[in-house]
Amino acid sequence: MAIGERIHYFRMLRGFTQKYLGKMLGFSDSQADVRIAQYEKGTRSPKEKYLNALAQILEVSPHALDVPDIDSNIGLMHTLFTLEDTRGLKIGEIDGELCLRLDKSTGMDYVELYDMLYQWFQQEQKLQSGEITKDQYDHWRYTYPQMEVEQATLHKKRNTTKNID
C-alpha cells in the first residue's frame, strides 16, 4: 500500500476530512484539502517534516505511513524476496500449510527480529483470548514500536519499585 493510501486509510479511521487534516498540518484554508488530496492520490509526497506531523496528528508511527509498495501480489512477493535476502526470512511448510520463518543463522538480526515478531504474536494472542480489543490491537500495531518502549519502561519502573520495597 502506497503512502497516499495509508494517509487516506488513517484519515478515514480517525474521521478527519482532508481540509481538517490539512489545516492541522498548517496549510491555509484554500490549500488544506488540495494538499491532502495530492498526498492521497500520490501526485505529491509529503516531506519528512510533514510525514512526521501527519503521523503525530493521526496518532500512528511514521513507519505505519511509509510502507513498501505491496499493492500487488508481485510487489508483495518482491518485498518478501528482499526480506529473504536481507533478514533471513525463509519459506517452508508445516502440516501442509505454507509458513514463513526466520533463519537462525542470520545472527543478531535474527534475535532482534524474533523478539519483535514474538511481541506481535503476544498481542495477537491477547486479541484472540479477549484480553484486548481489536481497537487496542490496532493501536499497538499502528504505533509500534512506541507502545513496546512505553510498556518496557513501565515494567522496568515497577521492578525498580519492587526492589526498593
UniProtKB/TrEMBL annotation:
InterPro entries, A to Z: Cro/C1-type_HTH, Lambda_DNA-bd_dom_sf
Domain named HTH cro/C1-type: residues: 7-65
PROSITE patterns registered for this protein in UniProt: HTH_CROC1
Alphabetical list of Pfam families matching this protein: HTH_3 (PF01381)
GO molecular function: DNA binding
Protein name (record): HTH cro/C1-type domain-containing protein
Organism name: Sellimonas catena
